[in-house]
Design goal:
Elements (H helix, E strand, L loop, with lengths): L1 H20 L2 H40 L4 H37 L2 H7 L4 H41 L8 E14 L6 E15 L2 E9 L6 E12 L4 E12 L5 E11 L4 H7 L9 H14 L2 H34 L6 H28 L4 H24 L1
Antiparallel strand pairs: 1-2, 2-3, 3-4, 4-5, 5-6
Helix pairs in contact: 2-3, 2-5, 3-5, 3-8, 3-9, 5-8, 7-8, 8-9, 8-10, 9-10
Length: 395
């Protein structure tokens, strides 16, 4: 006990000594920023959590009989995903409130009169936003994917559905490769297989359909009740089905089988294990997913994943963007502008930014613009706007 108190005392002294290294002006402005920042994080988290989760959980408690204790667990597990969304918005509101309050009390005017520039005044706000950007990235990449997945498992188990860590629904897979002419040496590249399975549970594909175009002029369709990866024979093995082969001359053959080996590769299993939502993946998993989609020839999903990977960086950077805009607006704010007006302004700015983000993101997923620019264009445009506002504020 005594040792713990001693350690705590030493830690406290270390923090105090480090804190005093920071210039007095920066410490003072940080003290002005932190209370509205904590308030904003709490406010935006509660509002977004209510809309996104609480109402849905209440409906499940009343209509389906979801236990209250389970609902609380799911709510707590979903909390990080909403906190991370609230960080950028909280930076905007807190900088608007803090710098607006300093401006309202003529403190910014007094500091400018003794030669302290606006750029120097907003410096602590920008440093705080860089720290919040780092926190957003850590939460979004390391915590949110795990908690979201656990919340989904608890919800599925409580609703009586079987759930395994390796599962998926409506597995669609296309494979590209060489299409060979069986009557000559001619070959060309193209889609060789189309695969569909109703479900993937515990390593088994259920209700499987495979269409094979790998022989030029021939179309082969396989239907089976289930399929598993046979590691000994290094092939997919399908059970209880039949194979229909359509020949170029119009004839067809039908063969029933109990067990049938088919060379499709392991990509099927890997794709089936991918989470449906990119928000449930960390950066490494998203990169793996993108490569899998590319190798399977699913260009649209690969492109969507490229956009989502870039967005894992632009979401944290939004803290810096919003801080720049909030600081500039706060410094320019006219005296007598209340907190409600600052809140209203922040909502409008957030709305504009996210409308831009969703619009560019959709254009990137559709392939109209490059995935990098789809994710980063709203950031660049907002930075330009923030820079212009800062220049106006410094006059």
């Amino acid at each position: 006990m005594f040792n713990n108190l001693l350690l705590f005392s030493r830690f406290q002294k270390l923090v105090e000594s480090k804190w005093k290294i920071i210039p007095l002006l920066d410490r003072w402005i940080l003290f002005e920023l932190l209370p509205p920042l904590f308030f904003s994080i709490a406010a935006f988290t509660v509002v977004s959590l209510s809309v996104g989760v609480i109402f849905d959980l209440i409906r499940k408690i009343v209509e389906i009989g979801l236990p209250f204790s389970v609902a609380i667990k799911i709510l707590l597990l979903k909390l990080p995903s909403f906190i991370v969304i609230s960080f950028p918005m909280a930076m905007l509101l807190s900088t608007l409130l803090a710098y607006g309050s300093l401006n309202d009390n003529s403190e910014i005017k007094a500091l400018k009169s003794i030669g302290i520039s606006v750029y120097r005044l907003i410096f602590p706000g920008l440093i705080l936003s860089i720290f919040m950007s780092y926190m957003t990235f850590v939460f979004n990449n390391n915590i949110v994917p795990i908690t979201n997945k656990n919340a989904e498992i608890i919800l599925s188990n409580s609703l009586g559905r079987s759930f395994a860590n390796e599962q998926g629904e409506d597995i669609i897979f296309s494979k590209k490769g060489e299409i060979l002419d069986p009557y000559s040496s001619y070959k060309k590249n193209g889609v060789t297989h189309l695969f569909y399975a109703w479900k993937f549970i515990d390593g088994q594909m259920l209700d499987v359909t495979v269409i094979d175009f790998s022989k030029l002029g021939f179309t082969q369709m396989l239907k089976a009740k289930k399929g598993i990866w046979n590691s000994d024979k290094n092939n997919w093995e399908f059970f209880e089905g039949d194979v229909l082969t359509l020949s170029p001359d119009g004839s067809n053959t039908r063969t029933k089988f109990f067990s049938f080996l088919y060379p499709l590769g392991t990509e099927l299993t890997n794709i089936a294990r991918l989470p449906k939502d990119a928000n449930d993946m960390n950066l490494g998993e998203a990169n793996t997913a993108m490569k899998l989609y590319q190798s399977s020839g699913n260009i649209k999903e690969a492109r969507r994943m490229k956009v989502r990977i870039q967005e894992k960086f632009t979401l944290p950077i939004a803290c810096l963007v919003f801080a720049l805009i909030g600081c500039s607006f706060g410094v320019m704010q006219k005296r007598g502008v209340g907190r409600s007006q600052s809140f209203g302004l922040s909502i409008i700015l957030i709305l504009i930014y996210y409308i831009l983000s969703f619009s560019f993101s959709s254009l990137g997923v559709k392939g109209i613009i490059n995935p990098f620019f789809a994710a980063w264009s709203p950031v660049f445009l907002s930075m330009l706007g923030g820079g212009f506002l800062l220049k106006q504020a410094s006059k």
